[in-house]
UniProtKB/TrEMBL annotation:
GO biological process, one term: fatty acid beta-oxidation using acyl-CoA dehydrogenase
Domain named Electron transfer flavoprotein alpha/beta-subunit N-terminal: residues: 5-192
Name of this protein: Electron transfer flavoprotein alpha subunit apoprotein
UniProt-listed InterPro entries: DHS-like_NAD/FAD-binding_dom, ETF_a/b_N, ETF_a/FixB, ETF_alpha_N, ETF_asu_C, ETF_asu_C_CS, Rossmann-like_a/b/a_fold
Pfam families: ETF, ETF_alpha
Claim: Transport is one of the keywords in the record: yes
Amino acid sequence: MSRTILVYAESRDGKLRQVALETLGAAHILAGDGDSIRILLAGSNITEATTALTPYGTDTIYTIEHDDMENYTPDVYMAAVQAAIGEAQPDVVLFGHTAIGRDLAPLTAASMSAGQISDVTAIEVEDGETSFTRPLYAGKAFEKRVFQSGPWVVTIRPNNIPAAEPSPDGGSSNIVDIAYPAPLLRTIVKDVVRKTTGKIDLAEAKIVISGGRGVKSADGFKPLEELADLLGGAVGASRGACDAGYCDYALQIGQTGKVVTPEIYIACGISGAIQHLAGMSQSRVIIAINKDPEAPIFKVADYGIVGDLFDIVPLLTEEFRKV
Ligand code: FAD
């Protein structure tokens, strides 16, 4: 029996987020012959994001655009999700495991009486059974879950599932505008004060250069920022560095900070406390720079450099500049 998979494509400031394409990638893994993939794009300014999605050759892109959607509130966005669900009648709804996805997914699952599997890092379809892998206990273990019945709601951890590729034939998608459902707004956002945490979103960055208490000051982050800029990465931090006032808490990675899974994570002057590992141990390649050869970070590192970060980081920057 054919199924309909609805993908919530997250955008920010009118631009499609990378996680939207990874969520679409997850839909491609799930979709069998005859299944239909549809996308919901909602926001206040989504023309560019709609154009960016069209080449992926999806059956339908539902768009819902309104000034009320400039800032996220669950009232507005949940109404949009429900309007799309009304149109698509999906069997599966996929979200990115982001702040917004983590908010909308359980509301969606409750509204559909669906089961939910969250924070999925891998999907396997074998002998007609689909299993979803997710980390447990701050990444110390993994479990594989399967749904016993439908509908399904799933959230996809950023940077784990390969992003969808545009259709080789140029692709085209049927775009269906859905009227803004104008829900009752119980709360509205009056103002958003953004903290600038760098040019690249930490949660989506492919390369993260993180500093710990070993950077010793706010100025100590400068060599890390230089290397991150050169490599097109983002700067992160341990709580030790945040608590010491060297950087903003928006950069904190770990159990009580952000979870990142970049392709390369470079930990500079970070001891490797369990709470920090909870936020980065799933990174594909971990490089640790620490002057203490006994630092626990070396136990999880793929490559370790024992030395002073103020010598090593500028050397790396110099070498990468030559490439
Ligand atoms: P330190 O442990 O002080 O390590 C500094 C390291 O820098 C040392 O290994 C040292 O050898 C090295 N170093 C010093 N100078 C240099 C140099 N010049 N060159 C190279 N290396 C150098 N922590 C997090 O990170 N994220 C969290 O989300 C988090 N949540 C927590 C939640 C709870 C409930 C609790 C109790 C703690 C939490 N922590 C968290 C704190 C955590 O336990 C550690 O205290 C913290 O991660 C330590 O930060 P650090 O590694 O930067 O500092």
